[in-house]
Amino acid sequence: MSVLVLANPTAGRGKAGRLIGRVTAELNALGIDHRIRVSESAADLERLAREAAASGVAIVAVLGGDGSVERRARVFYLTVREKESATE
To answer: What's the CATH code, domain 3-87?
Structure first.
């Protein structure tokens, strides 16, 4: 199973951005198939979350601060609900 990591490199005064390489190395060391998408802005991070939800990605991780996690969780949830409503 693959993991999609949505990264906000400016979170935590840039700390999240500095962790991208470490996260990649750890996931590789664990043999976890993954892809990291780095956002360019808050709007871009929201777009990436919507695309992930619409594509049916099973596992999404967010590398960012509290705001990044909360907003992406909300966007992901609402997108999945919209998709389910459309099929009913």
So the answer is: 3.40.50.10330
